[in-house]
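Below is a filled-in request sheet from our internal design queue. Each sheet records the structural input a requester submitted and the sequence that came back. We keep these sheets so that new team members can see what a complete request looks like end to end.

REQUESTER: design group, bay 2
PRIORITY: normal
MODE: inverse folding
CHAIN LENGTH: 119
BACKBONE (tokenized):
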């Protein structure tokens, strides 16, 4: 069983910074990709940033230039540095991982961590 443990988040004023981290544990043979999604009240969950093991990264247009995703492949950990935060960044942020356990493909979500940006 693979689990994700998220940390970080909290309350910050607009223009401030926060960082998130997410560590995967369990029976992981190969980590395909890790990333962050967010869901604001009344809205659908959306991709914030993702990173493949090979180093490819993808960002939502709304966070480009402000957020940075990074990974520690050896530790199966992903980080999200969020700078110049805006009130519209307020959401629950979820970590996501896609992996192989042996020959079985799997996907797991974290429980989510609240990020609140006050104006």
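RETURNED SEQUENCE:
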């Amino acid at each position: 069983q693979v689990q994700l443990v998220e940390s970080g988040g909290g309350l910050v004023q607009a223009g401030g910074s926060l960082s998130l981290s997410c560590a995967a544990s369990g029976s992981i043979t190969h980590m395909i990709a890790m990333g962050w999604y967010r869901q604001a009240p009344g809205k659908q969950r959306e991709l914030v940033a993702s990173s493949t093991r090979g180093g490819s990264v993808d960002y939502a247009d709304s966070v480009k230039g402000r957020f940075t995703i990074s990974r520690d492949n050896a530790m199966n950990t992903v980080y999200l540095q969020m700078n110049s935060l805006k009130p519209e960044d307020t959401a629950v942020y979820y970590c996501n991982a896609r992996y192989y356990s042996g020959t079985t493909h799997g996907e797991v979500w974290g429980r989510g961590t609240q990020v609140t940006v006050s104006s």
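SHEET NOTES:
- DSSP finds no helices and eleven strands in the chain.
- The mean pLDDT is 96.
FILED BY: M.R.
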